[in-house]
Write a structure and sequence with these properties.
alpha/beta; globular; 9-stranded mixed β-sheet; Glutaredoxin; 24% strand; 539 residues; 13 helices; FAD/NAD(P)-binding domain
Length: 539
Amino acid sequence: MSKTSQEPQVLIVGGAVTGLSTAVFLGWHGIRALVVERHPDTLSHPRSRGVNPRTVELYRQVGLEGPIWSEASLATDFSKLLMIRAETLAGPEMFSGPTDQPDPSGGVSPCEWAPIDQDRLEHLLRDRAAELGAELAFSTELVSFEQSDEGEGAGVTAVLRDITTGEERTVRAEYLVAADGSRSPIRERLGIGTDGPGEFATTLSVLFEADLSQAARGRDVGVCYFDKPAPSTILFAHDGRTRWIFATAMPEGETLETITEEQAIGLVRAAIGQPDLDVRIIPQLPAGGAKWLSFIIGAQVARDYRRGRAFLVGDAAHLVPPTGGFGASLGIQDAGNLAWKLAAVIDGESGPELLDTYQTERHPVAWMTLQQALGMMQERTGPDGEGEGEGPDPAEAYGTTVFGYRYGEGPPVPPQHLSGEPGTRAPHIELDRAGERISSLDLYGRAPVVLTAEGGQAWIDAARAVSAATGVRVDAHRVGGPDAELTAPGNGVAKKHGIAADGALLVRPDGFVAWRAEGAADAPEAALTEAVRALYTRS
């Protein structure tokens, strides 16, 4: 059993979209991560078909917005594709309508919904994580782990096994992040249960090529919900022409290993309604690897997101129905929330109590998102495509689910009403920086930021003094006023953020408002010192 010379600070188990995002966000903050993934590579299956604008904002912080759009899926114009409810594609429709993703932004974000398939996104994340210093160990599994809080020995000790060679090695890290899926072995080992309706079904999902023009009958097919070969069968357009994604309930008595290619093709033909359809299965992994995948459909949330030095993210923490495309973004935003907090604690800027806020903040968001996804699922899979479930109306609630969740007390906020309240995502406003148009959100990401308007120079001076006195990096920006580097149309920063011209906000690295002074203070340095100490749980 060997031991590495360069130990990671954080061990991440699971190398799909959430685990890789965690590695990217940690690397952005200068934290060394080791990602362990049992598969030999990222999968070819598209799985998630895109990420919502709030998630794109997080990727924008780490330099990935441009690459994501350069790799956007071929079927990007959702407004030209149909959502169809029918028994089969060749059969009569019960319902059809546009599949365009609701625009939750309404001008509240510099980012849009990004239609990128998960396999392409994971390639980008893998490369960016490596650029930022992460070690990626594919074909590697976690054998065991122990954690301790005893003095210098505090941390997580894990035994890893190379699946190809059988060689084992021991690594030590300060923290462990479980991104190992909805049936998370780490969650099981930690003894953490789940709440909610639970698992609905195990699906068989196949990526295939076929000419569906005969069954489509001139329709531009985007996403379909069929009754055959089983209720709630789904068909997605992959490239919009010849490549498709199919998912249906796993046939009774079968498993991923027992399904034959002939059976898989037969199930696809049943959904399309063409018994003689020419179907070619696209393998998910290199030669000898999986030809198709199995996914769990369900709705559940882990009771705890943390046990000691181990944290749950993504599907390990919550499983939401795929309707609405919330699942991947929910997990990525978990990673964004956790990463800056781990970095602050590891770097000594914050007390460890900051890590307790990961669950208190993200747990309610998971429940809100789960309810939205359930409501949309009932809408789309009802007999006529418009179910009568009791969930929230998707058209009204979608934007609030994406942007309006709040950390702390109070109801969610419709995105157009975001106004700088502590606990909410800081508002977006266009700024001018030396002739360049940027978003106010571009000011956040590395460290806490003091944002003030034209009359707030005292807060800028206070931020510099607090940084020098506490050793905690606090960035500061004044928008407008004498010699300002940043300006906004009509000096609109104050109004948009709920402050007077001499007020200020303290914005966290993830873009959420931590504290707000609506106007000037008699002792701005003392007030800001207290706010920074409260944010970083320092006495």
